[in-house]
Amino acid sequence: MTSKLGRRTGAMLIGACLAFAAGLGSAAAQEELRIGLIAPMTGPFAQVGADMTNGFKMYLDEVGSNFAGAKVNLIIEDSQGKPDTAVTKAKKLILEDHVQLLVGGVLAPEGYALAPVSTAEKTVYIASVPAADDLTQRQLGNYPYFIRTSWTSSQPHHPLGQWACDQGYKKIITVGADYAFGYEAVGGFQKAFEDCGGKIIQKIWPPLGTKDFGPYIPTFKADADAVFSLMVGPMPLQFPKQLRASGWTKPIIGGGTSYDESVLPFMGDEVIGDVSALQYSAGLQTPRNEAFVKAYRAKYGKVPSYFSESNYTTAMMIDLVMKQTKGAWPGPEAFIAKMLTLKVDAPRGPVSFDDMRNPVQDIYIKKVEKTKMFGYDKDELWNVVIKTYPAVSQFWTYGKDAFLKQPVYSRDFPPCKYCE
Amino acid sequence: MDARFWLIQAFNGISYGALLFLVGSGLSLIFGVMRIVNLSHGSYFLLGGYVALSVIWTTGSWLLAIPVAAVTVALIGLVMERVFLRPLGFDPLRQVLLTVGFAFLFQQAALDIWTGNPFDINPPAVLTQTIVVGGLHLPLYRIFMIAVALFIGLTLWLVMEKTRLGATIRATVDDAEMARGVGIDTSYISMLIFALGAFLAALGGVIGGAFLGVYPGLDFEMLPIAFAVVIIGGMGSLGGAAIGALIVGLADNFGKALFPEISYFTLYAPMALILAVKPTGLFGRE
Amino acid sequence: MSMARDRVKILIVVVALAAVALLVPHTTSFIILLATRALAFSILVMSLDLLLGFTGLASLGQAAYLGVGAYLTAILAARYQVGLGYDFWLVIVFGMLGAAALAALFGLLATRATGVYFLMITLALGQCVWGLAYRWNSLTGGDNGINLEHRPKFGIDLANPVTFFYVVFGFFAVSLLVLYVIVRSPFGRSLVGIREREPRMKILGYNTWLHKYIAFIIAGAFGGLSGVLWAHTAGIVSPENVVLTTSVDALLMAVLGGAGTLVGGIIGASVVLFIREYLSTLVHWWQYVLGGVYVLVILYLPGGLMSIPERIRQWRTAQVKSAAAPQ
Fold it and tell me: Which of A315, B130, B136, C294 has its CA 20 to 30 A from that of C193?
């Protein structure tokens, strides 16, 4: 009898010890995870900054700022759209706030400015928006603590070039904003289109911020089958209108930023039928995205843009890594290693990483349509997905080594062989 | 490049110049009368667009938006002149800096009130058509811009040349001290001109809003262009502003079309060269 | 009396600067960073003050010279690995010479103008430099900018923030001294004369145009120095460094601190940078504060912050006078 009592007491004691140990374990894992989000909250890109922070915060609200037991402390700093200020704020976040993770940046120069900071300060920097190709290509070796969750400028434009060729277009004019992002996007399109047999017969580069395309449109060659436009900022609103008003009836194919959700709600019916490509569309009809769009719109009053989705997904990815470590910060190297192994089901679809720390994701060819989406009761402009290219990497079908041998896309590369 | 190319480019340049005239004429008057360098002129332009948007969102009327926006911004200009610029007296540097300070304030306020989304002003559908004349596609809205500029220019000219008020203004521009000597209330005239300048800028913003969009940053983008018009045309001269606007519109257009490599310089290089040769601008008087 | 007051002013400035040099390194890394940025930029502001406060020429294109110095440094460092050792001092010289050369070119166009026209032509020239920085991709990297991965090392390692702070402080102090000597010299006094009464100076036989031209070049050279230091402080050079608002900021800082005081430059730079980069981490309505500060200082403190002691003295004198006046 004593032995039975003894055994039960023993069992209870062991159980109590285990429970105590488990309690201790989770209390020990009750760390603070400090994340610094650098976004433009003032200046011309303020809306992008708002989208970025809203997307990130929405995920935090969904999980109560709790990443597998770690309490998330999100510190948002205003880069004001300037690379200098972004670097200063990054240093403040690292040196004063002791963040473990830096997220954000928008423009290519900010990405190029923040990456070296991450190396110097040995802090993880997750570029959730900057698209400059070379950050995860020829320059990657300089930035061991850098990982990108957004896209490269040329990534969606390779499949778009292929798609354009498959439609039977033979001669295309490209009109792209005259700066690095424009060069890389047009470059990707041109390479894929010409490798398939198409010809780019004219390349036009209006300065970034051009709103009056009057000087350029009359120079368009009449024998083109379509126009590829890469418009950014205030440009996408004006270009299709002016092109159509000039009598152009042929198709307009847009780059990732030409019709995305940060401008589409403000466009008019003249863009119905225009096709573009990106790794995200708010009109992507999957259950995951529908839930995301509805929740975001209910909360913030507008449809999420790819800026919102990218930061939402980044927050989700950080959470997934923390789940692997049970809420304990594993250090920058281990964090990156774990993040690279993720395969997530994001609102944009399935996302994983290639060995150059850039996402491999589905690219959507989408067409602007006026329709009722997701049960909303009004006809609105949506980017409806008409074709999906699954698991597209930054190298398209070229293979990493072959791709890296060619120079980064620039104003003169690929050269315009068919420009008359 | 056939005749059609030249014609359509000239048309485009002229219509852009029309918009620039609206923006530049106000600035030219303000400088001519009050010797004030108004660096918040771009802000007036942008605010005109934003106020118009608010009017359109609440009442649905584009027609109503035009005068409401212009008058609202004119009132803002009035207050700014009376309360802030008047005490400074003639001090171009301090005026420059005060108006820039206000430009920052306006920019932040606009962001807080209207958000940073890129907006478009939608005119009535009839104005968005394109008419085809001799094989040339001419967007009606560009023709409308030219018409508005002509109307405003003509009205201003008539007032300046044919009315008593105009004479008083011209007297004040030419020689403020003498004007005061003959009993003209120059401070009232100054106030009027500043309000008029703001009015014109806001008008430009509403009209331009359908052509350029309404978004943060537009204020500082329009500012150097407005100054280019005034510099090239000469400060204080309405006719000069018209010619300056035409020159800038055409030069910018043809420069970009024919020499796209130098697109970033088509505005500033001529401006610098003209100023180097004739520091008061082509038609300026000093 | 005025000589003694001058000496007191100089003493105060020296003491204040010494205090800064001694105290800042003991604050946080972020404060050290901000202080370094303020010191580097203030050299540009002081160069502008030479034009503005002493010669009476307000330039809206001074950032162009910072750009020359900065881009030169960045290109040499990133492409040719020049300037990262003892040749850093060579880059300083090249930066100043390059900027001075640009100023010599632009000065030919600009210095015939005065007042508002000078403002406008310097604006236009500054915008041309911006356009060049943006478009000349092969040289400047276009809008991507150029990264400077490492700071120079020559016996001392400038990667250390405190070491770098002292180096920049040293350049600031030397620039302040040199500019002070210049404005106190006969040349400097003629500049003030030109500011006050140019026609009279001409009658007296001074070649006023040459004086202004030389002042313009000197200002350009110091702008270039500021640029070299700025490139290493920020670690990245992009067209954003030569955009219009940078020139406007410099002008505002000069007036905010006090035009014609030279030292006002560091005060103005500190206040503006504090608002832009420190206050913005605390509140999101910092831009209202910035705009408000400009408006209020322009309205009520036309002599800038450096004029506060003078204003207090005047106010006190007025008090004494009214008390002593017969009732």
Answer: C294
